[in-house]
Amino acid sequence: MTAQPAKPQHWRRIIHLLVFLSMLIPLLRPLGIPIPIGETSRAVYDYIQALGPADVLLVSSNFSVPQAPECLPQMTCVTLHALSRGAKIVVIASSADGARYATTVTELAVDEGARYGTDIVLLGFLPGEEAGVSAFLADVHRTFATDQEGTPLANLPLMQTVHTGSDFKGVSVTTASANDMDFWPRQLQKYGAALIMASQASSWPKLQPYLRSGQVTAGLNGQRDAAEYELLLHRPASSVAAMDATSGAYLLIVALVVASNVAYFVFERRKGR
Amino acid sequence: MKLTLERNLPLVAAFLIGVIIVVAYFVDIPQLTRVSTELRNWAVIITAFTMGIGLVNLSSVHVKRIAAMNRKDWYNSVLLLAAMGTMFVATYYQKSFESLFKYLFDNVYGPLGTAMMSLVMFGMAVTCYRGFKLKNLDGFFIVFGAVATMLGNAPVGAAISKYIPALSDWVYKIPNVAGQRGILISSAVGALAVGLRVLVGLERRHIGLD
Amino acid sequence: MIKSYVPIVLFLLSCGVILGWVRRLSSGGTYPLRRIAALDAVTEAIGRATELGRPVFFTAGIRDVATSEGMQVVAGVEMLSYVAEKAAEYGTRVIATVANQNVFAMTAEVLQVAYKRAGHPEVYREDDIRFLSPAQMAYAAGTIAIMRREKIGASFLVGGFAGEAMIMADAAVETGAIQISGTARMAQLPLLVAVSDYCLLGEEIFATGAYFSGSPVSVGSLAGQDVLKLVAGALVLGGSLLATMNITFVKDLLGK
Question: Is this model's pTM higher than 0.90 or not?
Answer without folding.
Answer: no
